[in-house]
Amino acid sequence: MSWQQTILRVNLSSGECRAEPLNMEWAELYLGQRGLGSKYLLEEMDPAVDALSPDNKLIFATGPLTGTMASTGGRYSVITKGALTGAIACSNSGGRFGAELKLAGYDLLIFEGAAEQPVYLYIHNDQVELHDATELWGKTVWETEPQLKALHEDPQLKVASIGPAGENLCRYACVVNDLHRAAGRSGVGTVMGAKKLKAIAVRGTKGVRTDKDMKSLFATINRVNARLTDKDGLSRDGTLAMIDVTNHFGSLPTRNNLDIQFDGADKLNPAAMQTPNEHGHTNLVRNSACFGCTIGCGRLCHIDPTHFSVKDKPQYHGASGGLEYETAYALGSACGVDDIDAATYARFMCNEYGMDPISLGGTIAAAMELFEAGVLTLEDTGGIELRFGSAEALCELAELTGKGEGFGREIALGSKRLTEKYGRPELSMSVKGQEFAAYDGRSMQGMGLGYATSNRGACHLRADPYGHDFKTRETPGKAEVVKTSQDQIAFIDSSGLCLFPSGSGWKISDYLELINAACAGDWDEATMREVGERIWNLERQFNLRAGLGRQDDTLPKRILEEPAPSGVAKGMVNQLGDMLPEYYQLRGWDGDGVPKPDTLQRLRLA
Amino acid sequence: MSAEMQVRLRMLGDLRRYLPVAGGFNDCELGLPAGATVQQLLERVAVPADKAVLVTHNGTMLAEADYRATVLHAQDEVVLFPPVKGG
Fold it and tell me: Closest Cα to residue A164, out of A352, A310, A345?
């Protein structure tokens, strides 16, 4: 379908729920999902407000292709002011929730205000009700979802909820849907917790619709889906395949970026996941796919029942979302941990309690460095020997953080607030307060620029300099690659589709073919570039009004001043000072990173 | 026929599907004529032309221009990997 042309506005302070027409002029300028949600956010709130105040808004946004059978057409985004970053937050998730929301008849949900007592939102097409959630408050994601299905006697109900981490305002709490898919980054679940919104339970049975011809849309979907035929790529090894590449190359952040190659990578890679261990246990159960997806990159995994983390906890002997590349880095190499079962257990804690595993791992890694430097003591950590490589410390802290207990309350601050509190802010491997993804900015110079300029803080999914970075460490050309890919990704993130088909057989023309078959208007590559650039600049406007600026477009001292210790870039630091001015110029921004008036006018943002 | 030598070949990421002979998860011992070059190894491996491939030889990144001039020796390690995005 294309747009449902309806948004649902829920005032949590008053309890009023109201359907409104979608602003179609904005839909044509911002497409949907990330772009459209960001437009509503900037129009409706003051970016300077406290992210945890009732004045912040929380938007769940689908794209025009969400809910179609176009491959990967199940995406939705959660857009708000991030509790971790203070910047605009837009976290994207798959699973089945987003498609169900669209099938219920809504392009966007907008939550405003805050409830006095915990509530959840129940949607069954036009039936929309806020219910008391006092009984659910304190429950994990894995308890909440089945309880809501039982309560409403509907096993097909799709649920997005927060766990105790969101309730306890862990700064990087996420929104989890379908038990282990998550809008993970920037603390969007924290904002949901501050609003005392426990869950959204949705059932949608309305038919699909399109602005164009339905038969033609389905024929296009069949034709374009057939171009995703790679069965030996992401479906076989998942994104985890990347760990062998970055470890060999020298861009796998290890021990809080003290190293960029990890001698334990062979114990976390696809071979380790797919090969029986000494007890005959294989970590991987099978791959899994989100709504409509024909790739299936997800990893359903289970932990060796004899492993120390679960040997007395049979409730964790089943399968859940396991390690992907980013989690293998954050809960593995970043902490120096080479125990795949321990890292999987920490990932399960993230699924169950609702935490972003990248920020959790990055914060534990920073705490490990603080401990090894003698800044943190056993007294501080509650007796936990917080040393790099300790699988026991990783598992214990993941659980404590999820529950909001003991030293986990400090880990819940995120690495920026934690290291500032203990007087060593330079040990936070973050940008705008958000922890690094799984690439080092010294061997991947463009990724460093991408981290520094990402509107939501350090992120591997906001720019695509991978090919350029693997080929050369020379910086000329990187600003353009980063800028161009940022705009293209902003567009795809607004469509309802995933980024991964672009690495599995689709070109941008395939995305456009689908959008043109579903949506009114003509969507060509020039439109794509313009819409993407408009979205990027709109996000920048939000951040500038929130008080962020050029000073936040930077990288930690370790990446700018400490030479890469090994790998192809041994001896190099990130050359951000060379790339950033060129990047600003290409963006049409002034030397302070502020969009010039003619840039805003060209993009219809003035 | 020239004498054969064995080199160690690793094919990382989704390139492992193109391993030319059975071996480990993503590696194998590959027999090549003595004096073979990296270019000849790549021709033997036959990764489709539309797939970008990067090469290291004994841990050093090679520029494409050096493939023909880089002569392999017994027990050398060649690693092929794709310059693609990850998760």
Answer: A352
Which residues in chain B touch residue A470, judged by CB atoms under 8 angstroms apart? 54, 81, 83
User: pLDDT tens, A250-292?
Assistant: 999 999 999 999 999 999 999 999 999 999 999 999 999 999 9
- Flag whether residue B56 sits within 8 Å of chain A, measured between CB atoms: yes
Distances in Å between the Cα of A166 and the Cα atoms of A139, A141, A194, A355 are 11, 10, 8, 8
pTM value is 0.98
Chain B residues close to A503, C-beta within 8 Å: 84-85
Q: Does residue A520 contact residue A2 with C-beta atoms inside 8 Å? A: yes
Q: Is B53 on the interface with A (CB under 8 A)?
A: no
Q: How far apart are the first and last CA of chain A?
A: 31
* Residue A356 to residue A370: CA distance in whole angstroms: 21
Task: Look at A438 and B86 and tell me if their CB atoms are within 8 Å.
Answer: yes
Prediction ipTM score: 0.95
3-state secondary structure of A205: coil
Whether residue A241 and residue B13 make contact (CB cut-off 8 A), yes or no, is yes
Count of CB atoms situated within 10 Å of the CB of B50:
5
- CB nearest to B86's CB, from A242, A270, A471: A242
Residue A434 φ/ψ, nearest 5 degrees: -105, 130
> In the structure encoding, which two tokens stand for residue A557, read together?
């001292």
* A58: helix, strand or coil: strand
Residues 6+ apart with CB under 8 A from B62: B38, B55, B56, B70
Binned at pLDDT 50, 70 and 90, residue A231 comes out as confident
Cα–Cα dist A187/A412, whole Å? 11
A232 touches chain B (CB under 8 A): yes
CB atoms A324 and B24 under 8 Å: no
Which of A270, A324, A470 lies closest to B54 in CB terms?
A470
With tokens 């370790």, the residue in question is: A558
The token pair that represents A182 in the structure block? 């998550």
Q: Kindly list the residues from chain A whose CB atom is less than 8 angstroms away from the CB atom of residue B14.
A: 230, 232-234, 236-237, 241
